[in-house]
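ARCHIVE CARD
Drawer: 12
Card no.: 0347
Subject: one protein chain, sequence and derived structure
Cross-reference: see card 0346
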Amino acid sequence: MSDTPDDKNLVSERRGQTLKVLVILSWIFMGLSALGIIFSTVDGQLSPDELEEEKVALLSTMTPEVLEILGESYITDTIRVLEVSNDYFYTLQGLNAANLVLGFYGVMLMFNLKKKGYYFYLTYSIVPLLISFGFFGTGFIIAFGAVFGGLFSLLFCILYAVQLKRMS
């Protein structure tokens, strides 16, 4: 059974331009994220010497004015995130890659007008928050990342939720 041009037009019309734009933007973001994971994985985990160099580079950027604005907890949080990221490097890369697959699958389902894709996308949006708080705990850096990433995810979740009426 093949799709006739009329069937394709009907599906395209039912999908709507807004859903197409959201899907394309999601795929672009996920593609760039996947490239980041690939390049990061190819570079690999930092050696102890490289980790120390990163810490020194971070500390060298901290002027008294910056410390006054951000506070000393900023430095300790940043160093902790750097160390934990390096200690659990491959675990974090794997979790992020698996989450991208989940998100891509959810967006693909929504593109095909399947409502359950939205629930996969919701899960994809929540997992980074769980990973962040699970591995890094709390702190200014983590909270800032969670708020920024959470707001971006929330925006797309809302925009996709408006499109649920198009899906079955």
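Annotation on reverse: The radius of gyration is 20 Å. The mean pLDDT is 89.
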